[in-house]
């Protein structure tokens, strides 16, 4: 394995800016605290649909132990988790269930697509009538982990990538009420 | 020396200070608020330590490290969790009974905090020094089930409902043997006041003085109270493989956090009671003999401050409960009830009789 | 173990008791004999049944106590095991701390399949002749070979590789493409840190810009 130094891909970041393009100290420091909390306590939903879930389980196990990051609190109820790791094939029959689980999760919520099946349909990409070709057709995905299945280390790397993303994004999306479209005529 | 400053002095000083400024009624009110807030803060710090400890104990018992990347040795892990839970969206489901749904966590928390009132933290440091302290605690702790039932019922979710019902059955059954083993200790001490019970252990803890009945009662109390706190191996109320998350399935964000907190506060209270009854609360370790060597030993023990004894014993029992949790697999619901009704209850009744015989014949030291 | 021993011995003695009680009654029971015998037989059954009930009661009480003791023994065993782990965690710990051990003790075997690569040499040359055999071998369409026609110096038309498009997002690391390649142009790498924020970033072009086919040495050159 070749050793890269910056092994976590850069995320451009989307720090809060006002209309003039300035950042506010209070907002950024609140962002920093909130993002620190969120990124260090990602509780995943125990959701695994096929063989990638085996690798997910082994990441929980003593050898790879993602509790070091504070991810070990796997909640069975979607209400209490922050992250859904789509570990495995999503068939057209499972897709509504996945969508529903995602909808039941409270904000902020994140999604990791783990394995070729979740990223693109994988081995079923070419010639299957039953498989969703990528969960990003169903729910928005934050981090993609390719592999069939990805190693437990790869999953941990994916989680760290997600942490990087959370740390550099806005803690709150403050959307202004949209103006009505003005009729020019 | 710090250990020489007794808490009685501090409370007396605060009392006189307040009296010099305020009228007696207001002094009373301010003191009430002050003691409540202090107890709450101490307990919250304890809970943060306990959650961290739980995760570390779990890790160590499973051949892994547990949290170690957030701060040195992962000590900020719990703080990160709390920040996240506070900032998480919390909502009530559409079909839920909104009022009940939102009251339930607060009610559960209130009930378990009420049990703090008669606890004796240190010599002269009791919020409500009543002569029926233990009775009050037993009465209050069986009310904890109301918050849980409310949560389960109002969520309008079958998993929540089943979880709450199971929890109710469990708490009501295990209340019996917990109560019987409390009675054993009370019979030995001859008083219901927490302070009185601790004072009665000045020449040795009941677990040493009370012969075999005290040991059995202590064991039964620890088992029954683990079940009362809904902790593994008795966590059927939230058995995640069967019931998603039991009675708090529908709770999100800080409302769930309050249930989580509640579990740990319950654990703390239960272990404080166990240490009060059987391990002498804040009382240092004394041996019940009259030899000069033993006397010097007792004197040496007195040098360790009482708060250290108090929290040491509390965390020892909490460690026991965590140890159980990470060793034993979960019981089935019928096994759980069988354990209580067929084993613990008969044993504790026989044990109480045995203890009574010992007390009547003055066999205890 | 101790309790199991007791239990089995008890079982045996229970049976023995029954037999001895039969003998104590000194009943002559012969098959096919007259009425008195059958009365005796009935009596014997009665006694036996009574004894059995008594025995059962005794047994159930004993079982109860035995179960309690055995429960405590087995619980203590489990508790001691976890306590041992808890105390000697420094020794028994088996965690590979992934991001810390990246440069040191991480064990990713050479044979681990993580990514298909098209190796280039120092002159920016690869060995792929754009024969599309790999594309046909791939079971899930992860490879797209896009070729172009060029004219060589001596006026011949030749088909060369334009883009070697690799869809890492659907590759299952089955090694089929590498087996199929007649030129040994592609290889499997054991990298695994491939997470990205955007799915389109998982589609790679494996041939570097400006790279060209590595010319095979002609027969003459080989001889010399
Ligand atoms: S990507 Fe591979 S290992 Fe993962 S679920 Fe799909 S087929 Fe199974
Ligand atoms: S390894 Fe298998 S799936 Fe991946 S590109 Fe080669 S043939 Fe296709
Ligand atoms: S990689 Fe090999 S099989 Fe694939 S096109 Fe190139 S030469 Fe042919």
Layout of secondary structure:
The complex is a heterotrimer of chains A (185), B (365) and C (224).
Chain A: H1 25-40, E1 44-45, H2 52-60, E2 83-87, H3 95-104, E3 110-114, H4 115-120, E4 143-145, H5 152-167
Parallel strand pairs in A: 1-2, 2-3, 3-4
Chain B: H1 7-21, H2 24-61, H3 77-87, H4 98-114, E1 120-122, E2 125-126, H5 133-141, H6 144-154, H7 158-189, H8 194-199, H9 206-209, H10 211-228, H11 240-243, H12 253-278, H13 292-302, H14 306-325, H15 333-360
Antiparallel strand pairs in B: 1-2
Helix pairs in contact in B: 1-2, 2-12, 2-14, 3-12, 4-6, 4-12, 6-7, 7-10, 7-15, 10-12, 10-15, 12-14
Chain C: H1 2-25, H2 35-87, H3 89-92, E1 115-117, E2 125-126, H4 133-137, E3 143-151, E4 157-167, H5 176-180, E5 187-189, E6 203-205, E7 212-213, H6 219-223
Parallel strand pairs in C: 2-7
Antiparallel strand pairs in C: 1-5, 3-4, 4-6
Helix pairs in contact in C: 1-2
Q: What does the model show?
A:
- The complex is a heterotrimer of chains A (185), B (365) and C (224).
- Chain A has 185 residues and is an alpha/beta fold.
- Chain A has five helices and four strands.
- The termini of chain A are far apart.
- Chain B has helices at 7-21, 24-61, 77-87, 98-114, 133-141, 144-154, 158-189, 194-199, 206-209, 211-228, 240-243, 253-278, 292-302, 306-325, 333-360; strands spanning 120-122, 125-126.
- Chain B is globular.
- Chain C folds into two domains: 2-79; 115-213, Alpha-Beta Plaits (2-Layer Sandwich), CATH 3.30.70.
- In chain C, α1 (2-25) runs antiparallel to α2 (35-87).
- In chain C, 16% of the residues are buried.
- Classes of the chains: A alpha/beta (185), B mainly alpha (365), C alpha+beta (224).
- Chains in contact: A-B, A-C, B-C.
- Chain A binds chain B through residues 33-34, 36-38, 40-41, 46, 62-63, 65, 67-70, 72-73, 75-77, 79-80, 82, 106-108, 171, and chain B through 55, 58-59, 62-70, 74, 76-77, 79-85, 87-91, 240-241, 244-245, 248-253, 256.
- The complex binds iron/sulfur cluster (3 copies).
């Amino acid at each position: 394995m070749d050793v890269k130094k910056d092994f976590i891909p850069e995320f451009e970041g989307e720090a809060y800016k006002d209309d003039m393009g300035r950042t506010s100290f209070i907002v950024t420091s609140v962002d920093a605290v909130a993002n620190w909390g969120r990124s260090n306590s990602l509780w995943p939903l125990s959701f695994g649909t096929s063989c990638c879930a085996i690798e997910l389980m082994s990441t929980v196990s003593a050898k790879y132990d993602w509790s070091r990051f504070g991810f070990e609190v796997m909640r069975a109820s979607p209400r209490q988790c922050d992250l859904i790791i789509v570990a495995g094939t999503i068939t057209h029959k499972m897709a509504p269930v996945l969508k529903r689980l995602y909808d039941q999760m409270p904000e902020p919520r994140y999604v990791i697509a783990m394995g070729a099946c979740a990223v693109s349909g994988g081995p079923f990409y070419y010639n299957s009538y039953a498989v969703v070709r990528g969960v990003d057709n169903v729910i928005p995905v934050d981090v993609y982990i390719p592999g069939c299945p990805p190693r437990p280390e790869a999953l941990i790397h994916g989680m760290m990538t997600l942490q990087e993303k959370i740390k550099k994004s806005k803690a709150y999306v403050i959307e202004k009420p949209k103006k009505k479209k003005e009729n020019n005529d | 020396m710090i250990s020489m400053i007794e808490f009685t002095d501090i409370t007396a000083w605060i009392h006189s200070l307040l009296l010099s400024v305020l009228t007696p009624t207001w002094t009373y009110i301010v003191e009430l608020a002050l003691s409540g807030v202090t107890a709450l803060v101490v307990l919250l710090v304890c809970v943060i330590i306990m959650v961290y400890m739980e995760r570390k104990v779990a890790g160590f018992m499973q051949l892994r490290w547990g949290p170690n990347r957030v701060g040195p040795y992962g000590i900020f892990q719990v703080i990160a969790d709390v920040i996240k839970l506070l900032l998480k969206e919390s909502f009530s489901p559409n079909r839920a009974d909104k009022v009940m749904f939102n009251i339930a966590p607060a009610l559960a928390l209130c009930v378990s905090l009420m049990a703090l009132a008669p606890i004796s933290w240190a010599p002269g440091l009791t919020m409500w020094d009543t002569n029926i302290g233990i009775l009050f605690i037993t009465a209050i702790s069986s009310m904890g089930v109301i918050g849980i039932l409310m949560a389960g019922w109002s969520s309008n979710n079958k998993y929540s409902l089943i979880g709450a019902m199971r929890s109710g059955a469990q708490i009501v059954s295990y209340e019996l043997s917990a109560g019987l083993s409390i009675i054993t200790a009370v019979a030995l001490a001859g008083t219901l006041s927490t302070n009185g019970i601790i004072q009665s252990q000045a020449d040795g803890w009941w677990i040493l003085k009370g012969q075999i009945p005290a040991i059995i009662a202590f064991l039964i109390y620890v088992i029954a109270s683990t079940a009362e706190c809904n902790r593994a191996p008795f966590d059927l109320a939230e058995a995640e493989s069967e019931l998603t998350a039991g009675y708090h399935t529908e709770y999100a964000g800080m409302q769930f956090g309050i249930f989580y907190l509640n579990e740990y506060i319950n654990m703390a209270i239960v272990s404080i009671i166990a240490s009060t009854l059987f391990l002498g609360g804040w009382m240092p370790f004394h041996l019940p003999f009259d030899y000069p060597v033993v006397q010097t030993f007792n004197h040496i023990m007195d040098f360790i401050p009482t708060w250290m004894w108090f929290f040491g014993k509390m965390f020892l029992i909490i460690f026991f409960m965590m140890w159980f949790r990470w060793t034993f697999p979960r019981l089935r619901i019928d096994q759980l009830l069988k354990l209580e009704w067929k084993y613990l209850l008969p044993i504790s009744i026989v044990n109480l009789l045995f203890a009574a015989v010992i007390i009547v014949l003055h066999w205890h030291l | 173990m101790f309790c199991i021993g007791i239990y089995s011995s008890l079982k045996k003695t229970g049976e023995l008791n029954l037999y001895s009680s039969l003998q104590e009654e000194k009943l002559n029971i012969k098959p096919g004999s007259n009425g008195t015998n059958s009365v005796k037989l009935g009596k014997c059954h009665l006694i036996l049944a009574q004894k059995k009930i008594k025995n059962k009661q005794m047994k159930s009480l004993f079982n109860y106590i035995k179960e309690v003791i055995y429960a405590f023994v087995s619980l203590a065993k489990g508790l001691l095991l976890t306590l041992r782990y808890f105390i000697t965690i420094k020794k028994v710990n088996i965690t590979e701390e992934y991001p810390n051990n990246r440069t040191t003790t991480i064990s990713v075997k050479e044979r681990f399949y993580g990514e298909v690569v098209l190796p280039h040499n120092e002159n920016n040359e690869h060995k792929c002749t754009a024969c599309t055999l790999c594309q046909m071998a791939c079971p899930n369409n992860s490879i797209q070979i896009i070729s172009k026609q060029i004219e060589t110096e001596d006026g011949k038309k030749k088909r060369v590789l334009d883009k070697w498009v690799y869809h890492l997002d659907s590759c299952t690391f089955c090694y089929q493409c590498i087996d199929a390649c007649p030129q040994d142009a592609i290889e499997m790498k054991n990298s695994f840190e491939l997470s990205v924020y955007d799915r389109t970033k998982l589609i790679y072009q494996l041939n570097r810009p400006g790279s060209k086919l590595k010319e095979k040495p002609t027969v003459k050159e080989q001889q010399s």
